[in-house]
Specification:
Blueprint lengths: L1 H18 L13 E3 L8 E5 L1 H13 L3 E5 L2 E5 L2 E2 L4 E5 L3 E5 L7 E2 L2 E2 L3 E4 L2 E7 L2 E3 L8 E2 L5 H9 L1 E4 L5 E7 L9 H5 L6 E4 L2 E6 L2 E3 L6 E4 L2 E6 L2 E3 L10 E4 L2 E6 L2 E3 L5 E4 L4 H6 L2 E7 L2 E2 L4 E5 L7 E12 L3 E6 L8 E22 L27 E18 L8 E9 L3 E5 L5 E9 L2
Parallel strand pairs: 1-3, 2-4, 3-6, 4-7, 5-10, 6-11, 7-12, 10-16, 11-17, 12-18, 16-19, 17-20, 18-21, 19-22, 20-23, 21-24, 22-25, 23-26, 24-27, 25-28, 26-29, 27-29, 28-30, 29-31, 30-31, 31-32, 32-33, 32-34, 33-35
Antiparallel strand pairs: 8-9, 13-15, 14-15
Amino acid sequence: MKRIIILLLLLPVFFTLRAQEIAPAPVQIPANQVSLLDFGGVPDGVTANTEAFSKAISALSKKGGGQLVVPEGIYLTGPVKLKSCIDLHVERGAVILFSPDKRDHLEKGKVRPAISASKCHDVSISGEGIIDGNGVWWRAVKRSKVSETEWKEFLKKGGTVTDDGSLWYAYGLKHYPDIADNFMEQERMRTHLVRFTDCERVRVTGVTLQNAPKFHLVPQHCTDVLIDGVTVRCPWNAQNGDGIDIMQSQRVVVRGCTVDVGDDGICLKGGEGAKSLADGPCKDILIEHNVVYHAHGGFVIGSEFSGGMENILVRHNTFSGTDTGLRFKSAPERGGKTKHIVIHDIYMTDIQDEAIVFQTDYVDRPAGFKTNRPATAQQFLPDFTDIHMSRIVCRGCATAVKAKGPLSFIHGITLTDATFFYNERDCDIDDARMLQLERVQFVTY
């Protein structure tokens, strides 16, 4: 018994030491440097720069890589494809603005991410400039989430309003043509602002990413990823406007970022169903010293994580004004197992709903879609376990801790040395055995 107690006491120390080992291998960028202006770049906010980006990247790639500098100005463009050993450096005062004409983003009938790299190595985005996805021309808008004045502004653009008046779609716009046969099909075509797929050694530092058509920054199946000092922002009511989504990647550090978005803030996803088991888990992840303002969740696991979550450390983060703080969400057919998750020194203020929430019946239903139903097959079940939270402080939330679902879905969770000032309820937990609480203080009016 004494050995068990000692091991529990040493657990936070063990994972703190382990976190120091989560150091992604640095990117290697050759010393070559070119300016976008040298390849016909025009920073007037009107001229298309898609070809200039393509020529500059190709020229650098032929030299073995280097840095592509984007000087101050506004560069309208279609999708930008990065290659190995290239750093896209966006200088202070520079804005890369993606075209509102959806046709500019099509390739073989599919919409490409605004900036992407696939099967590359040593790829980087840096600088103090802005990368803007012009997402207002893509996203659906819920009538309930905007003021009367804002709603009228959307109607001025044209678009399509559902029969019940609850949703506006960027379909049938006055100035830009559609790329699908109906608004529901076009809604499914929204894509990400920045996506790296199957890449090794990825770095994103300093830049501001804003107004994505969908998610903002997505490393998917990547290894050795550093995201440092990045600002991610979009309107609070932007549909599916996730900030940073780490998808089945390994050795990832997210540090010193500021996130203020319309959906989940910093989120880990592990794929859905049988294919994700072969792809492997999100593993060896360090998330520290970040601030999340508006988001559906400050730090989130799920909803899909069939590939699993392993060796995750979340520490010294602040959530101010998020809907929920620490959010764990999944459902049958989407779930997997968590292993070695340590979360400590988290500070929250003005949380709208729950400071900590476990949900195991989550249904992914995009705006206007009614076909998605709760899963019925009992496979790929959520297994939230081996999660250890400590030194959590929350001033202001509706409910401090909520856990809903079977005991087999939520178990082996510890919460120690925490204080919650709640407005409505301290705990809403289906089974007291789900969470072990020690030195936890609940305070209200």
